[in-house]
Design brief:
alpha/beta; Rossmann fold; 8-stranded mixed β-sheet; 5-stranded mixed β-sheet; 12 helices; 15 strands
Length: about 350
C-alpha cells in the first residue's frame, strides 16, 4: 500500500499536476488558492520546469497559450474573479484546440465576493465561460485526495480531445488538510507521445501553425462543427458519477464537491431514521452524467438538489430528469450548510412523498 501524505488541498492539486507531467505554470495571487502558485514557485524549478508569477491573470493565461502550443503540459490556477479575467484567453485556447489545464478554487460572489467557499461559478465552468461555441471538461473533487489525482485525468482528456480541462474546487477543499494517496506513478514528460500539431524545431517536416481563428470563407464553421463532434464524443464516453444507496431510494439528494460531503452526512442521518434516501454525485460537471441521472429517475420520482449557489447546478439535474421527477432545491448562495440543515430539508421533502 502506498504511503499517504497529509496535505492541504491546494498543495495536493499542485503536486498532482507536477506528478502528471506539468512543466510550466503561470499564475497570479488571489485568495483562497494562493498556496498553488506558492507551491509551484519552488516545485517547478525542482523538476526542471518553469514558474512565472505573471503581472496579471490576463497575462498568465496567454502565457499558457504560448507554452501549450509547444506541446508541454501547462497549468494555471485562480479563484472566481481571477478566472473571469482569464476567460478570454481560455476561449482563445479552445479556439486553437490547445489542451491546457487550469483550476478554480471558488470563493463567494458575485463581484469580489468573499474568501469563503461558494459554488456560484457552475454556469461559467460548464457553459464554456467565455465567448464563442466551446466547452471545457470540468472535474469536481470532493476531497483532498481527489484534488491530487484529478489533474492527471484532466491532462489525459485534454490531450485526447484537444480541449481545455479544469478542476472546479472551492475554498474549503483548497484549505483543508487530509491524507492523500496518489493513484498514479509520476509521469516523465520525456516519455509522453509528441503531438503532431505542436510547434517546435524539427528538420524535414511541414510547417505548423497554431491559431485560434481562420478567416477563410466558411472555414470557421467547419472547424466549429468538427469541434462539436469531439464534444459529442466526450459527452458519450467521459461522464463520471458516484451513486450511494439509490437502488431502493424514494428520495435522492444530488450534490457535488463540498456540498456532496455535507449531503452524504445528511443522507446517513436519514437512513438511520429509516428513510430511503440516496445520494447522486456528478464527478464530471461537464460532461454532465445525464444518462446516469435519467436512469435513476426511472424509479425515483423525488430529488433534492443541494448547492452553495442560488440555483445553477439544479438546472442540469432538471434537464436530466426531463420532467419525469420532482426536483426541489436547497440553495445556500455563498453559504455553507450543515448536515443537520440538509437533513431538515430532507425531512420536509420526504414527508410529501406518496
Amino acid at each position: 500500500m502506498a504511503e499517504k501524505i497529509l496535505m492541504k488541498g491546494n498543495e495536493a492539486l499542485a503536486e498532482g499536476a507536477v506528478r502528471a507531467g506539468c512543466r510550466f505554470f503561470a499564475g497570479y495571487p488571489i485568495t483562497p488558492q494562493n498556496e498553488v502558485p506558492e507551491y509551484m514557485s519552488w516545485r517547478m524549478p525542482e523538476v526542471g520546469g518553469s514558474f512565472i508569477q505573471a503581472e496579471s491573470e490576463v497575462a498568465a493565461i496567454n502565457m499558457l497559450y504560448g507554452a501549450s502550443a509547444t506541446g508541454i503540459r501547462t497549468m494555471t490556477s485562480s479563484s472566481s474573479p481571477g478566472i473571469s479575467l482569464k476567460q478570454e484567453g481560455i476561449s482563445y485556447c479552445a479556439g486553437a484546440d490547445l489542451p491546457i489545464f487550469f483550476a478554480n478554487v471558488v470563493r463567494g460572489g458575485p463581484g469580489l465576493g468573499n474568501i469563503a467557499a461558494g459554488q456560484g461559478d457552475y454556469f461559467q465552468s460548464t457553459r464554456g465561460g467565455g465567448h464563442g461555441d466551446y466547452y471545457t471538461i470540468v472535474m469536481a473533487p470532493n476531497c483532498v485526495e481527489e484534488m491530487g489525482n484529478f489533474p492527471r485525468r484532466c491532462y489525459e482528456l485534454a490531450e485526447k480531445y484537444r480541449v481545455p480541462a479544469m478542476v472546479l474546487a472551492d475554498a474549503i477543499l483548497g484549505q483543508m488538510m487530509e491524507p492523500v494517496e496518489f493513484d498514479f506513478e509520476p509521469v516523465d514528460p520525456k516519455t509522453l507521445k509528441a503531438h503532431d500539431w505542436a510547434l517546435g524545431i524539427a528538420a524535414g517536416r511541414e510547417r505548423r501553425i497554431v491559431r485560434s481563428y481562420d478567416l477563410r470563407e466558411g472555414k470557421l464553421e467547419l472547424l466549429n462543427l468538427e469541434r462539436m463532434e469531439r464534444y459529442r464524443k466526450i459527452q458519450e464516453k467521459e461522464a463520471l458519477h458516484e451513486n450511494r444507496q439509490t437502488d431502493d431510494a424514494k428520495l435522492v439528494v444530488a450534490a457535488y464537491g463540498t456540498s456532496s460531503r455535507i449531503a452524504a452526512g445528511a443522507v446517513k442521518m436519514a437512513r438511520d431514521k429509516g428513510m430511503k434516501v440516496g445520494l447522486f454525485r456528478p464527478i464530471t460537471l461537464w460532461p454532465f452524467p445525464t444518462k446516469a441521472l435519467a436512469t435513476i429517475a426511472e424509479h425515483v420520482k423525488n430529488f433534492l438538489v443541494v448547492e452553495m449557489s442560488m440555483g445553477q447546478f439544479v438546472e442540469d439535474v432538471r434537464l436530466a430528469v426531463c420532467g419525469t421527477a420532482r426536483v426541489d432545491l436547497y440553495a445556500r448562495p455563498a453559504g455553507v450548510p450543515s448536515a443537520d440543515e440538509v437533513f431538515t430539508e430532507i425531512e420536509k421533502v420526504y414527508q410529501g412523498i406518496r
